[in-house]
Task: structure prediction
Amino acid sequence: MSDMMDDMEGGEGVVKKFMFVNRKAPHGTIYALEGLEVVLVSAAFDQDVSMVFVDDGVYELIKGMNTKGIEVKDFSKTYRALDGYDIEKLYVEQSSMDARGLTEADLIVDVTVLDSAEMASLMAEQDVVISY
Amino acid sequence: MLHIVNKSATERNSLESCLRLATKGSAVLLIEDAVYAVTKGGTAAANIQAAMADLQIYALGPDLDARGMSARVLDGVKVVDYGGFVDLVAENNVCQSWL
Result:
C-alpha cells in the first residue's frame, strides 16, 4: 500500500500498462459510461493506458448518436476528449466490427484496428486489465 | 401476442429464443440494446429477415436514434415511437418480455 501511495504522489512512480476492455453497448446498461469515467480517472495517475473495444463495445464509438428521445446523457462525444487527457491508444477488433457491419468511417474517433491475434498479444502484455 | 426484446442479440440469446418460439402473426418489438439486431450488416440481420415472413418486426425509434443506428435499419422493419409502443401493447392481449 505504501508503495502504491508513493506511486501516486511522486512524479517518478512506476508506470504500468493498463488496459480497459469495453465489451458492452452504450445506454442499455451503465457499463460503457462507468468504464469511460474510470478511464478518465486513470488519466490522473500518468499510467500507460490503452482502451480497447471488442464485441458490443464497438457500438460505444458510433457516430451520430442522439439520446434526446431516451433522456440519457450522450457520452459518446467524451471519447473525442480522451486525447486531451493523453489517452491516445484506442483499439478496436476487426472481427467485432465486421460482425456488426461497421467500418472505421462509422466511428467518432480515430482508432487502430487490430485483428484478433494482435488484440490477444496486446492484452497479454498488460500489467493490469480492467474489463467492462 | 406482442413479444418485447431488450437485450443485444450479440450478447444474449433472448432474440434468438423469441424468434424460435413466437408463433406466426405475432408482433416482435425490439427496444434498448435489442435494436442493433435490425441494422444492416449485422449477424442478426439474416435471422430478422427470415423471421419477417411470419412475424411483424418493430423497433423503437428513440432507441435507434440514441445508438446512432436510425439510418441503418433493415427494409421491412417498422420503426415506432413511444406512442406506437403503447398502441402495440393495447392491440395485443398478451405481452411477453424476453428478459
Observations:
- Residues 17 and 101 of chain A are 31 Å apart (CA to CA).
- Helices of chain A lie at 2-9, 31-42, 94-99, 116-124.
